[in-house]
Amino acid sequence: MNEQTKAIIKSTAPVLKNHGEAITTAMYKILFAKHPEAQILFKDASKDQHKKLAAMVYAYAANIDNLGSLQKGIDKVAKIHVEVKVLPEHYPWVGEALLGAIKEVLGDAATPEVMDAWEEAYGFLAKVFIAREEEMYAGN
Predict the structure, then answer these.
(1) What are the boundaries of the signal sequence (predicted)?
(2) What is the dihedral of CA 95, 101, 104, 105, to 10 degrees?
(3) Can you tell me the distance from the alpha carbon of 39 to that of 54, in angstroms, rounded to the nearest whole number?
(4) How far apart are CA 72 and CA 86, in angstroms?
(5) Which of 133, 134, 135, 137 is labelled catalytic?
(6) What is the CATH number that goes with domain 3-137?
(7) Largest CA distance in the chain
(8) How far is CA 127 from the centre of its chain?
(9) According to the model, what pLDDT value does residue 95 have?
(10) How is 102-140 classified by DSSP, letter by letter?
(11) pLDDT digit string, tens, across residues 10-38
(12) What ranges do the domains of the chain cover?
């Protein structure tokens, strides 16, 4: 991920802090409308799952230049993903829904530059999770 992307993502952190729950609520609606089969992955999720995800997205944005500080959280979420059988093919679904929700909630503030940065940042984080989850599936 290049430095310009990191700077754009970090600059969106305050917006995510203020609008994160609206974004993640919209994200789940988009995800389940486009991929109803994804609902099984969230059958045991808590009622405040959208709040937890909003906090995680905010933490990612705020710490984009220090991802090592997020390792404990990544490991915790990856463990849950393995337990519910999240697979690499699910990540594009979530990415599409998340980007759609950002655009929906932020409207004109979701400029092409911001959306391109979030697409790149999401793709990077998805690869991190997929790699960690593959290790866990393999028993490491």
Answers:
(1) none
(2) -140
(3) 18
(4) 19
(5) 133
(6) 1.10.490.10
(7) 45
(8) 11
(9) 97
(10) HHHHHGGGS-HHHHHHHHHHHHHHHHHHHHHHHHHHTT-
(11) 999 999 999 999 999 999 999 999 999 99
(12) 3-137
Active-site entry in 28, 60, 91, 122: 91
Q: Is 28 a catalytic residue?
A: no
Other C-beta atoms closer than 10 Å to the C-beta of 64 total 23
Name residue 78's amino acid: A
- Report pLDDT for 62: 95
Provide block-wise average pLDDT over 10 residues at a time, the chain (140 residues): 94 94 96 95 87 94 92 93 94 97 95 97 96 90
pLDDT computed for residue 39 by the predictor: 92
Residue 54 burial (10 A CB sphere; 0-12, 13-18, 19+): buried
Q: Write the CB contacts of 28 (distance below 8 Å, at least 6 apart in sequence).
A: 42, 49, 50, 97
Single-letter code of the amino acid located at 77: V
> Cα separation of 113 and 58, whole Å?
18
Q: Can 119 be counted among the known catalytic residues?
A: no
